[in-house]
Amino acid sequence: MLSKAWKNVLFGLLLCSLSSAHSHHDHEHEDIPIERRQELLAKWEQEFTFTGISTFAHLPHVKCLLDPSVTYDIAIIGAPFDNAVSYRPGARFGPRAIRAASARQMPATSYNTRAAINPYLNWAKIIDCGDIPITPFDNAVAERQMYEAFLELGSRKVHNPAAGRGGISQGKPKLITLGGDHSIALPALRALYKIYGKPITVLHFDAHLDTWNPVRYNAYWASAQARFNHGSVFHVASQEGLISNTSSAHAGLRTRLTGVDDGDYTNPGPEQGFLRIHADDIDDVGVKGVVETIVNRVGIDEDEPVYLSLDIDVLDPSIAPGTGTPEPGGWTTRELIRILRGVEGLNIVGADIVEVSPAYDSNAEGTALAAAQMVFEIITSMVKMGAKGDVGGWYGRKEGDVEKEQEVAEGKKDEL
Length: 416
Ligand SMILES: *[C@@H]1O[C@H](CO)[C@@H](O)[C@H](O)[C@H]1NC(C)=O
What we know:
Elements: H1 4-21, H2 26-29, H3 34-44, E1 74-79, H4 94-101, E2 126-131, H5 139-154, E3 174-179, H6 185-196, E4 201-205, H7 233-239, E5 248-253, H8 263-266, E6 274-278, H9 281-298, E7 306-311, H10 333-342, E8 348-354, H11 366-386, H12 401-409
Parallel strand pairs: 1-2, 1-3, 3-8, 4-5, 4-7, 5-6, 7-8
């Protein structure tokens, strides 16, 4: 059951959405007594996981781009664009698939045990801003549309200015973008660079480097527009000075390189601004080792903004086949979830989850489900880090846990 306080919050949200959706009819609502509204809410507000119009985690949907008065602390935004892929298309349907697969997450039933919070019922106002209507006909225009949309949404006032983590992101909303192919990260980074006024640290989960110099695709036909593609995102971003060369990291790599040597790895240039963690490394150092390597590289500093860019192809295609550029030998869903949980302390100011291409997924929606779960974990960490005080959870021990762990270690107890 929801607490009374939360019912009031939800009721407030409902009133807001009614009034913003129908502000031109406001006079029609004036005579409706509050008791009647409360009765309807009591009767019909509680949904089932399989009911309702598809929004991310049943969150309220607002067309944020159309209404500058809409505020939020965290917003989901879809970027259904896949005109910049090098292999399979279809990621324009990613936002729809991820939203549909997120249906088992409802705000009222999403307590996250590892974090000891329900991210949807905590301090943050989280909404689904819908999709950016991106043209499929002109990539130069698409690039600009995305930049303008990310800048618009990322520059809004937050809903709870006093809440949040503190540091450089205080008072700034956080966007989580559902892709779309990976090219969408370039306009997102341009917008973040503008908003934060400094290079952004990129934590990049992917089978591929995505730092390819665009001439490596086809030097003869290289063009200014061809630079905007899903494999050159971080090359271009680095050349534009948008990303930090000293704290960014790739994780989950297992790509083949171009040419006859390892030049993609060793040539000097913007490609080298990343620390590389390979998919195989997990066998040697374990999840914990991967987490430590990331945290040591990226650093936990509330004044250094981090963008988390998650290409679903970091997972093995046996688990997540519904993607544009599959590479065998990837991580499992469980491993990736644990890595995300392990890096919860990073100062993530924005994130994307890209390259979900549902046409190649199975009927069981495994790829989209994995993506929806990753978004849940990222939102959880954003909310948890902004919650004042230590809320505990699996990775932030609660009072008494240390003693219990000691007893387990001494064999006095079987488990925690
Ligand atoms: C990172 O390195 C590239 C290539 O040397 C350079 O163009 C870019 O400006 C650097 N970025 C920053 C933020 O220093």
